[in-house]
Amino acid sequence: MERLQKVIAQAGVTSRRKAEKLILDGQVKVNGSVVTELGTKVSPSDEIEVNGVPIDKEEPVYFLFYKPSGVISSVKDEKGRKVVTDYFPDIEQRIFPVGRLDYDTSGLLILTNDGDFANTLMHPKYHVEKRYVAKVKGIPSKLEIRQLSKGIMLDDGKTAPAKVKMKSLDKKKQTAIIELTIHEGRNRQVRRMFEALGYPVQKLKREGYGNLDLRGLNPGDSRTMTPHEVKQLRNLAVT
Ligand code: URA
C-alpha cells in the first residue's frame, strides 16, 4: 500500500505537492469515489482518477546511463537528432531523463518513469552533488581556482561554493583538466563558470551524481539502479 499522493506523482501526473492539492481540491477519485484525505493508502488494484482521467500505474524503473556526447537529453527531438531514450528501445515504461546534460556533454544521467523521484532530485532546495571533469582552454591560476570554489558571479547570480581540483595541465597545449563538484543545476552552469573566467570548456563529462559513478560503463551503456542506490539517492537529496 502506498500513499495516494505518492502514487499520483509516481505516475508522472505532477509533483507530490501538487498531487496533495489536487486531492484536497476534490479532483481525485479512488474506485469511483472522491477522496480528499491526504495520506489515503491505495493498493495497485485500486483505480485512481485525476480530473476524471485514470492514471497509468507503471512499475517504477530507474536506470543509470552513460550519455555519449552528441545526444539530446530528451525523449524526442524536433530536428530528428539522437535522444537518450533511443538507447532504451526495449523499455516499455515511459522513462525520461532526470535533468539534463548538454548535447556536447557526456556522462552520468539517470532515467526513470518516477516523476516524484525526479522532482525530488531536481528540487533547487536539495543538494545532490554532481561531479564534473572539464577540459578547458588555458590554465587557471590558483587564485582563479579559489574563486571558482568560493562562487563566482554569473548573469543569473553568484554560484554556491564548489569543490575544485586541478587534475592535470598541459603547458604546451595550454589546456587543463579540472574536476568541479557542484550541487546546483543551472543551465550550462559548468561551462558558464569557466567562461566567466575566460577559459572555454572544450570537453565536459559528468562522472558522479550523489552516490553514483560511471564505473563499469562505456558511453552508450546503461544499467538498472539497485533499490539501495535509489533509496540512498533519495535520502541524499532531502538531507
Ligand atoms: N554544466 C554544463 O555546463 N553543462 C552540462 O551539461 C552540465 C552542467
What do these coordinates show?
This protein has three domains: 53 residues, RNA-binding S4 domain (Structural Genomics Hypothetical 15.5 Kd Protein In mrcA-pckA Intergenic Region, Chain A), CATH 3.10.290; 90 residues, Alpha-Beta Plaits (2-Layer Sandwich); 80 residues, Alpha-L RNA-binding motif (Alpha-Beta Plaits, 2-Layer Sandwich), CATH 3.30.70.1560. The protein contains six helices and 17 strands. A hairpin with a 2-residue loop joins strand 5 and strand 6. Helix 1 crosses helix 2. The longest helix has 12 residues. Bound molecules: uracil.
Give me a quick take on this structure.
The chain contains six helices and 17 strands. It is an alpha+beta fold and 239 residues long. The relative contact order is 0.15.
On the 0 to 100 scale, the average pLDDT is 93
Low-confidence stretches: none
Provide the list of bound ligands, each named once: uracil
Q: Can you summarize the main beta sheet?
A: 9 strands, mixed
Kindly provide the radius of gyration, computed on alpha-carbon positions and rounded to a whole number of angstroms.
Answer: 21 Å
By CATH, the topology of the largest domain is Alpha-Beta Plaits
Residues in helices, as a percent range = 10-25%
Indicate the CATH architecture of the largest domain.
2-Layer Sandwich
The total of beta strands comes to: 17
Name the CATH homologous superfamily of the largest domain. Pseudouridine synthase I, catalytic domain, N-terminal subdomain
The CATH class assignment of the largest domain is Alpha Beta
